[in-house]
Inverse folding.
């Protein structure tokens, strides 16, 4: 790769490979040095993670905002820390490695920053995009998405089990092992297209106690592409905000969507409301929604209780099971307990399911969605094994012929556990364990509008099951003779339309 200067807005993208000769890039810095929300932490052993990669990362874009670069320095170069937000920089990337189709420059050596000129926020152009308009050219640039809202409006910006995120020095009352690096929260724009806010556990405003805005507004951040191992693969765009103000939403206001039926468990009581009255647990009784009209049930042999969520807006020192303890909300989810083998219909060779039934009679619209959050286990390693990992959604208008929604498999991650001995073997918290309930939106066929009855099944689509392995935790297999019990937590489940 040759040349003395590459002005990104005028010349082709960099070519992947090692930069052998002096090569300069120029741009405006849209990140801030060592900001806590630039990149993922890297797990260094079973109890700790390093934020070094985050602290070595910066993002620059062209003055017109047309293209951007992710820069990863080789060391915590003092010169790299000069890359203040909005400054105009010139960097020699000789010796670095270009990757991801010319979008990422890794291993930038010491002394590479040639010049830094101060700038201001006005130097970064306002770049407005609908979610569906985002392209590869927008990657690693600062973008603003109008008319956004949080899909799940309970909890905080980053709903995680805080004791796995906090370093002991941060809050000794919480303890913590500092492993958690990155989590994400689901949003949608008023076209009904989902996106994720990617937020690291070091971000100080992630759980301020104020909750999240209930209305709509503009969401701004660095458009990134991050495969978050603890979360599982997602296929919606991701933005990394730098300030709470990047969620420029109304604190109160209407949604772009109408809620047809929703189960959110916000009353936080032990009992479950069913057609047959209040129950401490149920088998196949139909659960009444907290909003709207519908029914929810499991279609196989299982016991269903109230479980825990981690969507409390505040963090308090450990206080047992009171609301706020380490971000947890007791009785804030629906917990399905069953033997692992019961998640599969062995005669028909397909998954069993949690089912939502509702009516769309007389209702018209342009977009119909299923929103839900879930996680495997209950923070105890013995209850984490053998939960189905890969899930899908099916729909029917007669409860007999079901059609699979054509989407990539949805990953269900196991909630974390402290290191624990089982059958003489010590299992440490997996690097693939989630830190909360993962959030998902599935678009349902618009042909369902007007249907008298609709059934939606949330179901395993493969026999892969969770293990306690540090990596490759999806390599377990559901078997018809398994005697292991599984615990699966479902958070908010909702059918919405517009």
């Amino acid at each position: 790769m040759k040349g003395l200067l590459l002005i990104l807005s005028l010349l082709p993208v960099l070519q992947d490979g090692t930069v052998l000769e002096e090569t300069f890039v120029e741009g405006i810095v849209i990140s801030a040095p060592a900001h806590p929300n630039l990149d993922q932490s890297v797990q260094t052993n079973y109890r700790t993670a390093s934020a070094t990669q985050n602290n070595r990362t910066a993002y620059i874009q062209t003055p017109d905002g047309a293209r951007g670069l992710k820069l990863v320095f080789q060391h915590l170069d003092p010169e790299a820390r000069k890359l203040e937000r909005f400054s105009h920089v010139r960097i020699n990337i000789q010796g670095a490695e270009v990757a991801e189709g010319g979008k990422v420059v890794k291993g930038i050596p010491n002394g590479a920053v040639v010049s830094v000129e101060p700038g201001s926020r006005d130097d970064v152009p306002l770049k407005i995009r609908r979610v569906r308009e985002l392209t590869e050219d927008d990657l690693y640039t600062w973008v603003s998405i109008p008319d956004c809202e949080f899909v799940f409006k309970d909890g905080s910006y980053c709903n995680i089990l805080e004791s796995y995120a906090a370093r002991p020095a941060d809050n000794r009352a919480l303890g913590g092992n500092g492993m958690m690096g990155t989590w994400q929260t689901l949003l949608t724009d008023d076209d009904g297209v989902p996106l994720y806010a990617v937020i690291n556990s070091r971000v100080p405003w992630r759980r301020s106690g104020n909750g999240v805005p209930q209305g709509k507004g503009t969401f701004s951040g660095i458009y990134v592409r991050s495969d978050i191992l603890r979360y599982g693969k997602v296929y919606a765009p991701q933005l990394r905000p730098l300030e709470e103000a990047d969620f420029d939403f109304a604190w109160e206001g209407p949604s772009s969507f109408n809620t047809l039926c929703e189960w959110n468990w916000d009353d936080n009581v032990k009992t479950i409301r069913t057609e047959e009255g209040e129950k401490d647990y149920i088998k196949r009784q139909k659960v009444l929604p907290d909003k709207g009209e519908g029914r929810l049930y499991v279609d196989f042999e299982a016991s269903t209780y109230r479980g825990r969520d981690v969507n409390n807006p505040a963090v308090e020192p450990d206080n047992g099971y009171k609301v706020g303890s380490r971000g947890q909300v007791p009785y804030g989810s629906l917990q399905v307990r069953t033997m692992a083998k019961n998640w599969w219909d062995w005669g028909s060779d397909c998954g069993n399911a949690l089912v939502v039934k509702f009516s769309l009679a007389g209702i018209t619209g342009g977009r119909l969605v299923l929103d839900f959050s879930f996680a495997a286990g209950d923070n105890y390693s013995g209850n984490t094994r053998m939960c189905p990992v890969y899930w899908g959604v099916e729909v029917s208008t007669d409860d007999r012929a079901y059609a699979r929604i054509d989407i990539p498999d949805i990953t269900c991650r196991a909630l974390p556990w402290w290191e624990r001995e089982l059958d003489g073997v010590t299992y440490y918290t997996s690097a693939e364990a989630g830190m909360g309930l993962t959030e998902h939106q599935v678009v349902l066929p618009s042909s369902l509008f007007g249907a008298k009855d609709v059934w939606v099944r949330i179901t395993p689509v493969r026999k892969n099951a969770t293990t306690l392995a540090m990596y490759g935790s999806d390599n377990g297999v559901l078997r018809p003779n398994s005697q292991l019990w599984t615990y699966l937590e479902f958070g908010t489940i909702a059918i919405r339309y517009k």
Remarks:
- The CA atoms of residues 227 and 399 lie 36 Å apart.
- Confidence is low (pLDDT under 50) at residues 1-12, 170-175.
- The longest helix spans residues 52-55.
